[in-house]
Amino acid sequence: MFEFLKRTAFNLVYLFHPPWDTGIPAPEIVRFIAGKNPGKAIDLGCGTGTNLLYLAQHGWTVTGIDQAPLAVRKAKGKLKNLPKTLLVADVTQLAGLELPGPYDLGLDMGCFHTLAETFRPKYVEGMEKWIKEGGVLMIYAFQSAESSPVQGISREEMTAYFRGRFELVNYEQGQGRPSAWYYFQRR
Asked: Rounded to an integer, what is the distance from CA 150 to the centroid of its chain?
């Protein structure tokens, strides 16, 4: 029941302008793709598609997944003339979806840390299926902090979920709030 309410709340936020939807691609993504040959990318919890738009404009073949139908509708509008695959789907059910992967790049800006602990292994299973060997999964996640009411995850917990399937190849502390970027390479 809680997961249903959470999905509904996320969808309703897109009736307005969510505070996390800046309309500017994440600088970490801009840096990461600079000088790289375009490939296939999947954005988990893609929201209105800001990062997908940037990737597509730089030659990447993009897939976006979000549980909020209103967000996906807005993403379709943003990417209207660009090739893309956009789906309303649950990121914990990726292993069972038919997607145009495998992917060179997986992107998650604030999705994984919102999942209940019981659903996180299914997410990882999906990423193991869809990120190609040598591909990178970039995850931005809030970290646990006593001063924050927002759910977070520690570096140790994060790496434990992906251990054995992915290798942590880079880690950057986030800006402004307890958060971090994790760069996992698929083994």
From this structure: 18
Beta strand extents in the chain (DSSP E only): 40-44, 61-66, 84-88, 103-109, 131-142, 166-173, 179-186
d(CA 8, CA 5): 5
Of residues 177 and 160, more confidently modeled: 160
Lowest mean pLDDT, pick from 99-113, 144-158, 159-173: 144-158
Residues 44-65 pLDDT 10s: 999 999 999 999 999 999 999 9
CA 174/CA 176 separation, integer angstroms: 7
Using DSSP bridges, classify how beta strands 179-186 and 131-142 pair: parallel, antiparallel or unpaired: antiparallel
Question: Which amino acid is located at 25 in the chain?
Answer: P
CATH architecture type of domain 2-186? 3-Layer(aba) Sandwich (3.40)
The number of helices, as runs of H, and strands, as runs of E, in the chain is: 6, 7
Query: What is the distance between the alpha carbons of residues 173 and 184, in angstroms, rounded to a whole number?
Result: 15
Phi then psi for residue 41, to 5 deg, are: -130, 145
